[in-house]
Q: What sequence folds into this?
């Protein structure tokens, strides 16, 4: 497993936070490495209330985080900062995101209100679940 910060991403706090979060999650939960290895796609992440956009490119057991949205990501996640934090706090039960606690209910509210939008979710559902498991601190 390798995580690279591309030029320009090293100055973005969210990029550094994501790098640290993923490394820590895999160190504390080694089984998450299997999901990381299976991710082979580009994800666009936009934090709408902080004007931050990142591209997360997973390929060959390597994640490269780039500033901005590069190309046409398979998945695009747009959320406010609080919702991004809730996504990392989401519990995983039976291998799936769990929506029946406070964090999960907040994620559902964010989806309903439009504060969380995920495009490509149906087409790349399995990859979205893997990404959720890698990102979750639980």
A:
């Amino acid at each position: 497993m390798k995580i690279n910060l591309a030029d320009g991403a090293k100055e973005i706090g969210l990029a550094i936070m994501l790098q640290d979060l993923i490394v820590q999650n895999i160190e504390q939960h080694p089984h998450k490495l299997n999901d990381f290895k299976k991710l082979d796609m580009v994800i666009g992440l936009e934090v709408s209330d902080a004007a931050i956009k990142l591209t997360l490119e997973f390929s060959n057991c390597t994640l490269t985080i780039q500033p901005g949205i590069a190309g046409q990501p398979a998945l695009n996640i747009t959320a406010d900062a609080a919702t991004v934090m809730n996504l990392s706090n989401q519990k995983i039960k039976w291998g799936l995101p769990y929506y029946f606690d406070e964090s999960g209910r907040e994620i559902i509210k964010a989806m309903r209100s439009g504060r969380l939008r995920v495009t490509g979710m149906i087409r790349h559902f399995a990859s979205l679940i893997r990404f959720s498991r890698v990102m979750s601190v639980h």
Summary: The chain has five helices and eight strands.
